[in-house]
Amino acid sequence: MAAQAQPGARSLGPRAGIRGRRIRVAVVALLLALTAPACGGSDEPGDAATGPARRADLPFTHPGVLVSKAQLDRVRAHVAAREQPWLKAYEQLRASKYAAADYRPKPYAVVACPPGDEPGRGCVEEREDALAAYTQALLYNITGDRAHAVKATGIMDAWARVVTRHTEANAGLQTAWAATSWARAAEAVRYTYDGWADGDLLRFERMLRNAYLPQVVAGSVESNGNWDLVMADAVIGMAVFLDDHAAFEEAVRHFRGRVPAYFYLKSDGALPVAPKGSELDTADELSRYWFGQRRFADGLAQETCRNFKHAGYSLAATAHIAETAWHQGVDLYGEVKDRLRAAFEFHSGYQLGATAPGWLCGGRLQRDLGPDTEVGLNHLRGRLGMELPHTRKLTLERRPEGTDDLFVAWETLTHAENT
Question: Would the keyword Magnesium be found if you checked this record's keyword annotation (predicted)?
Fold first, then answer.
């Protein structure tokens, strides 16, 4: 990834009229699906060993983009009971600029995001507005205050009325960052709130299909791994929200092709797995791709020797994809649990201060891991009972983990001990 250009609660309960509205929304979604072009970045079949990730005739579970209904209910209960760490995490969210009652979106028709230090246009505004919509959606689900749902849908509608495309070299990454938050916000509101007008909802769905999904659905195999993984994170979230089974399968294919190529395990052999679809096939090419590293150890990431920040983006995106798939009955975690555990432990240990040996990145590490551990730790330790001592220590020291202002937000609140 190139450098940025800019760098008390109550139970909600069922609401009158929501069932009828859901029927109308389902009809709208069906019509949209029938008229939308099929998406997909490849005409290759799914993984021969596993086949399609899920049956296309099975409905998606909603809400189910990163956070499930049961998880939202538990968060609300924890906050109402003033339990930690959820109360402190809620107060952190509540105090953020994204939670402001007078928050005003700043939509752009064309979001232009060049690499490096070149000035962009609309990049920061888009990411922040998407995060604000998600923040307001969480506030609505926790407090039951409809003003937050109105604010969330208003932010989303402001962009849906304006944005048409993303341009410049960082367009794919920018699109993915924003789309992850848009999908989470929309999913958390659509199935818990009865005030999102059908026309506005349809306009937002069209925005995702036209201005976001085509930009990211094919991935970016020629880029560093964090690009492909956050793109797949965006695609799987949009796929669930849009009830788009083809896009869901595409995200799963990218996950399966990229995660083993991004995080090393000694079972891979002397060299890392090359990204599926790439032309990397020699030791020298792989070393250059891994930022000069020639010796590999369990948990090392393709961008570790670049910095931990980018490795952390990929850790977070990998966990996000697997978590959304988990809520849809697909166990991607099970396919990579040992690899993911090793990567979390490797980076957490060094982030905590372990001395880097000379063979690792020349003994020089940029230890700038972000708030990227809660979702993976919740599954690996909480659901599977795996031991992650370094990751747990780091996570406990950092709680509550807030937001990176890109695509990770409030995950202590949503995922701490939330199995």
Answer: no
